[in-house]
Amino acid sequence: MPLYEHVMIARQDLSNAQAEGLIEHFSTVLADNGGKVVENEYWGVKTMAYKINKNRKGHYALLKSDAPAAAVQEMERLMRLHDDVMRVLTIKVDKHAEGPSVQMQKRDDRERGDRPEGGFGGGERRERPSFGDRPDRGPRPSFGDAGRR
């Protein structure tokens, strides 16, 4: 069967238990339609980049599943109809990554990757050009009262 990863965002005013209950509910929907949830992660309440349905935050969850396409379509349909679910993203993957997702790892444990030592900007600092050796342009021209009205 194909492998999928689903990320869902639930409303911020739910309790943690209710948000985890949604994960269990949609896991049983997959199981009832011939699939199985390999792993699930509750990421907690996170701030979103923009408001969705007047919510600034949301409960994030990840489901890794091994299910037929029909089961995934049914689960997505029910997620979109559910009032507590604001967004759903499903991605078909070749294989599931081992261990916890990047969201669950500690920030210090992550590889900093391409970031340079100096912080943002990605390069060496240059000195500003000096204008001290520029030749004098002479006095500025006077336009008198021509510029005033």
Task: Describe this structure as you would to a colleague.
The structure is a single chain. The chain is an alpha+beta fold. The chain has a domain of 91 residues: Ribosomal protein S6/Translation elongation factor EF1B (Alpha-Beta Plaits). 20% of the residues lie in helices and 32% in strands. Strands 2-3-1-4 form a four-stranded antiparallel beta sheet, covered by helices on one side. A hairpin with a 2-residue loop joins strand 2 and strand 3. Helix 1 packs antiparallel against helix 2. The longest helix is centred in the N-terminal third of the chain and has 17 residues. The protein is elongated and about 85 Å long. It starts with a strand and ends in a 56-residue tail after the last strand. About 3% of the residues have low confidence.
Unreliable parts: 118-122
* Overall geometry: elongated
Sequence of strands across the biggest β-sheet: 2-3-1-4
* Order of secondary-structure elements: EHEEHE
What is the CA-atom radius of gyration, in angstroms?
27 Å
CATH architecture annotation name of the domain at 3-93: 2-Layer Sandwich
- Percentage of residues in helical conformation: 10-25%
Structural class: alpha+beta
Provide a count of the helices: 2
Number of strands: 4
CATH topology heading of the domain at 3-93: Alpha-Beta Plaits
Can you summarize the main beta sheet?
4 strands, antiparallel
Classified by CATH, the class of the domain at 3-93 is: Alpha Beta
Question: How much strand content do the residues show?
Answer: 25-35%
CATH superfamily of the domain at 3-93: Ribosomal protein S6/Translation elongation factor EF1B
